[in-house]
């Protein structure tokens, strides 16, 4: 990719900075840092503020202060992980919902290097009364629904936190985590939407109750109804999903042979099938999965060769299915805050 035709991030907001990856133009399966989407609730922490030490406290036998260089000396693990913002594709909901109007680029894939969280918790000695683990980043600011400043905090149930593939990362693609993506430490929670992967992580606190912070109980909650909170439930596991990268929506093409390509991902099992429809869902054709096998937390690249001789307008659909039997729906689960959009990926092309 030459400098002259290199894509750029797509800005959704400047204060705080929220920018999409140019997902339709990214060919590498592992995304370079300059193309990682940026999702922030507050301004970036001051560069002098993030400590190069990690603190573990609360209901532990041995509170810990862990220097950055100490983590580097431990046995690291590498995880190829897809991270997707819970609001990715929010702009596609009908009726529309409020929030950052993400299209399809609030998603990334890369190799994160770090130490399993449970290793550090074992060192600290978690109390038998522990219920949840709270993760606090150094980013902070005022919310519209609160009078005071708050830090970004999220929690995980103890059982989830002890999963061996949840890591405290200190590198991305073999280099220190870029500052705008969480340096020096970032929690990485594979298979969950990326709000769980707390950036600029500084403090890990073990508690004996359910955490009630606003980014846990107000935001990142599915509200199925516009007028009330009946049936609300937390946002957690990634839905099965896909995106058509090429051709672009409303492209004009000549008759002949074209490649329809894209990516597919899931939070349960692995992607084992992507189907393409060229007639608005009346019939389906199997696409080719390109990167088999790949990391169990990574997206799959797929393609389909389309031979077309008849001119006219076409609607192209892509539908992914995972090994747990979950399939993308034709109609998404609408919810008031616009999380977890995963209806079939749809584009329109005109053959001339």
Question: Could you give a quick summary of the protein structure above?
Answer:
Helices cover 6% and strands 39% of the residues. With 352 residues, the protein is mainly beta. A five-stranded mixed beta sheet has the order 4-3-12-7-8. Strands 5, 6, 9, 10 and 11 form a five-stranded antiparallel beta sheet that branches. Strands 16-23-22-18-19 form a five-stranded mixed beta sheet, with no helix packed on it.
Explain the overall architecture.
This is Mo-co oxidoreductase dimerisation domain-containing protein. It holds the Pfam family Oxidored_molyb. Its cofactor is Mo-molybdopterin. With 352 residues, this protein is mostly beta strands. Helices cover 6% and strands 39% of the residues. It has two domains: 210 residues, Sulfite Oxidase, Chain A, domain 2 (Alpha-Beta Complex), CATH 3.90.420; 111 residues, Sandwich (Immunoglobulin-like), CATH 2.60.40.650. It contains four helices and 23 strands. The longest helix is centred in the middle third of the chain and has 8 residues. The model has no long low-confidence stretch (mean pLDDT 95).
Task: Itemize the secondary structure elements and their pairings.
Blueprint: E1 10-14, E2 17-20, E3 53-58, E4 64-67, H1 68-73, E5 77-84, E6 107-116, H2 117-124, E7 132-142, E8 149-157, H3 158-161, E9 167-172, E10 175-176, E11 186-188, E12 201-207, H4 214-217, E13 221-222, E14 233-234, E15 241-246, E16 251-253, E17 256-265, E18 271-277, E19 285-286, E20 288-289, E21 300-308, E22 312-322, E23 345-351
Parallel strand pairs: 3-12, 16-23
Antiparallel strand pairs: 1-2, 3-4, 5-6, 6-9, 7-8, 7-12, 9-10, 9-11, 13-14, 15-17, 17-21, 18-19, 18-22, 20-21, 22-23
